[in-house]
User: What shape does this take?
Amino acid sequence: MKIILGFVMTVTITGTAFAQQKDTLSEVIVTANKFEEKRKYVAAKVEVLQLKAIDQSLSNNTGGLLEQSGKVFVQRSQAGGGSPVLRGFEASRILLVVDGVRMNNAIYRTGHLQNVITIDDDILDKVEIIYGPASTIYGSDALGGIIHFQTRKPLLSTFKTTLSTRYSSAYNEYSGHADVNAGGRKFASLTSISYSNFGDLRQGSNRNPLYGNFGKRTSYIQSIQGMDSIVRNRDENIQRQSGYKQYDILQKFLWQPAQHHSHELNIQYSTSSDIPRYDRLTDLRNGQLRWAEWYYGPQERLMAAYQYKAKALKGFFDQLLAGVSYQKIQESRMQRAYRNEEREHRIEDIQVIALNADLRKSTGRNELNIGIDGQFNILQSTAYRQNIKTSAKRFGLDTRYPDGSNHMHYSGIYAQHLFKIIPGKLVLNDGLRVNYVGLQSEFRDTALLHLPFTSASQRNITFSANAGIIYLPDDKSKFSFSISTGFRAPNIDDMAKVFESAGGTQLVVPNPELKPEQTYNFDLGINRRFMDWISIEANAFYSLFRNAIVTDRFSLNGSSEVLYNGQVTPVVASQNKARADIYGFQAGISLQPVEAFDLYSQITYTYGRYRGKDDVKVPMDHIPPVFGKTGISYRYQFLGIEAYALYNSWKRAKDYSPSGEDNLQYAMAEGMPAWCTLNLSTTWKITSYLKAQAALENILDQNYRVFSSGISSAGRNLILKLKVEF
Assistant: This one.
């Protein structure tokens, strides 16, 4: 079982922001059941980042957007990353969705992922976050929740152009964005292009004397006259070898031949330069830097999705939502040890084909949604060594995943029901899903590890369900209670991965005997508004986590250790060996004594412990410390000013997971210190077409690092942005 305790408090005093909070119960969301639904009829806890909040965040990427909201914890192993955490679940245990299409694929790992940065935050319309299991609607992976990124839609009968540019000093960043909407009576096109160039990140210089040189980049490896040399860093706060570039393109076409029928084609492409894995570049072996090179190759994501929507249908069902999508993703890892002339290349090419059909019937006090969906993953994993001087390639390097054919497919059918027991007062949510997952991997070359098998396969049928009751005593109040289950079927990364873990102390080998992870969740929520200027929100949750997959000691060919890369290395594998309980709080308060003046605060607390077969409790991985955001803002006519603080509490070493996923080696011996940054931002609407924004983040230039991260956060950071719309 898994245990997570959370607490969130929000205080806001703002005219515009409060107006949005004031109408939050009537806010329309789509993530909860794929069709538009008022938030007050959804029993699960939902947060929505609207376009205005996205526009005002001045984030450097989508991971930064989530982090600056104060409602999502984000881990980073490098500047070009961002791994969100919901209720203590991270990576493959939360579901990422973009425009209704699942991003999670067969090689999403349980560690840390940077895939969210492949979504361009400059073209986002809103982000919907559902906390807790949501497997009834979306299937596997939604244990901690769902983050649904929704990009802007093409507009009919509209011509609009947006141009923007941004500079940030700590990142030495130069970014630009342009989008054009051209819409006629029945056809519309939306084109978006973004480019970002990030230099080496500068960390804060104001260190607590007790922390010594923690985080300083004292030296780095550079090639001088063809030879690796350890070079002294002239500015120890500049995190050398952390910069990268990113390119994002979006093209949407909308054809609406009739009022209630629409066709949309959505094409997205994101790529980057090589992205240095900063934490690994600071690893030491025998007292000196270990890696001359360790970087991710260009992270490419291509998506093409077609969606058909129909309303006011004749027959039993009123609405239809059907779609098909194709994704092509390439990820790669390159590493080369100090003064080693051979660079190791490991490349993963994955293709994902998915389809869905969802139907809704609304009649009287009932709404019924039913749907089917499926996804088919094809993975090709390759590896080779390349001489950096001659460029000659040498094969025979072990691949990260099986080097043969790899397939993973799943299909599911669900029904979700809403019943207004007492219209406007008492509402029931309930649903059920049946899901099938199949996985097949083949090992062609087993000579390196002498595997006792040449293939591995799994077949799993899993059920999930949810039920919730909502009480609405008046238009200012909402009380809800829900029960839901979630599951995550093992994927290729869980079952068949072969790789050297951090620090080179363990070798992870395949385990074809895995079972799906499952959660059972209970939620209690309260929303209440007083005197039209005070709002409170509270949420309590408790979950059981069964068959949790953890990495533990294993044997290969009857041996617990193998000779790997010239070293005797312990063998480990993913296994269903843990369980935990999860419980916690989320709460908020919002105030608006005057229309233009805002005050807000968010805080989140999470606690978790695994319980093994011997009933010994150990800290769970991915459990963030207390974190939050508090601020005050003033908006009047053309000017907006906001001052806010972001903060994390201590994460003590005793609360780090022993699995190594929490990266204690990149923290201090005592753990990760508490930190707080003070920040100021302004918005000036110069004309109806031109808007200027400026921000000064981390005003006191505090030096800090977010828990589990392998790179220190930005020091004092001046951000300037200019945006033109016409």
Remarks:
- The chain has six helices and 48 strands.
- Helices lie at 15-22, 51-56, 62-68, 135-138, 278-281, 492-496.
- The radius of gyration is 25 Å.
